[in-house]
Amino acid sequence: MAPKVDRFVSPGKGNGLRATANIRRGELVYSAEPQAACVSNKWAKNVCHHCFSRHETLLRCSQCKMARYCNITCQKLAWPVHKSECKCLRSVLPRIPTDSVRLAARIVFALAIEMTQYKLGSSKGNGEELYTLEEHESHLSSLCEQKREGLSQLASMLQLYLQEEVSALDQVVSSLPPSCQDPMSLMAKVTCNCFTISDAELQEIGVGLYPSLSLLNHDCGPNCVMVFEGTKLHLRAIKDIELGDELTISYIDSMALTDDRRKQLEEQYHFTCCCQRCDSRDMDALMASGEEATCCLLKDALPRLDGLKAESNWPELLDLCKELLSKAGSSFPAENLSKLKVTDVALDACIQLGLWEEALEFGLKTLPVYRCYFPDPHPVHGIQLMRVGKLQHFLEHITDALDTFKQAYEILKVTHGDAHPLTSELKMKMEECRCELNQ
Q1: How far is CA 37 from CA 21, 278, 327, 366, in A?
Q2: Range of 318's domain?
Q3: pTM listed for this prediction
Q4: With 90 as the cut, is the pLDDT of residue 120 above it?
């Protein structure tokens, strides 16, 4: 483990991570590969199941027909884990287990490989981890009956899924800590402690377990953020952190009302957030600003917009967004959270339909609001600036594009670091703009 952090007991929170040295804003605190990870079912056809990069065309596993890879190299590197997964997938086709079940199974497969390597003397195990699978909280005792029933179904699905490999995995399962041998307990640990893996544009493409980083506690105004490079997780400081300070991240989208944030944290992570931002409710009035009837109109329409987006029904999605924004009127506050979400969805729809001028118009409307809600360097704000900058560049608004890219760079050099591929792409875009302006 990197010397910048160590494990400690955080008052009122249980375990946590704290700084063992002064950490500067923008500094890389820690990087980690997952103990296990899997591509989300939603993106199974578009993302390499080994390196997690996107491609229009991917090689498909000839046996399970689900796993896809960039090339033969990725396929070979993935095979040690996929050979067990492949048998299990074939045994349950045409059904595909949920992401959490597939991740739990991959954890078992990874442990089997670790055990084999350890016996052969080619691995030291994962003794460097500050947090073990056994120590991960399951919160089973605090679950309501409905959630226990849902978890029980996932556990049954895991047992059925692993049945094809059960004889080969018996030794692995029996050597697991007692709380991990029980499928329901294992599923509870996975669902409560796994991280969502996102791509460069913060699209959720998979899930993974990063044991030591599960020690990080939540704050709605955190001092660190997590970004991914493939499956590798980078923890970076977005504020100056002093020796002994606790490191925190936000478990959820912080752009939500206090009651909604607290409800999500209680349901998913089983605690009530009492951070400074929740106690002060500092942004609630602004997020809910505007006439109540219009607020309800926009908020009630959001599930419908999500459904159309999931169906990739971009024409109908854009029409509905325009209708909602027209009903709200130009005088309705841009800072209203539901209006911002509708405007953002309209931006996505325009990009998908190739309506570049309209996309830029919607994108520009979102930037002042993003700046308001993400005053600290935040990946979401930086990436939104980069999206708008690309539209400006494409439409030959070169001076505006360069200015927008510069604003994005000031954020991404902190949240991603200069060496991250996304930051490198951004620097290349800025150089293109400068060359075009000089010409």
Answers
A1: 31, 32, 44, 33
A2: 286-438
A3: 0.91
A4: no
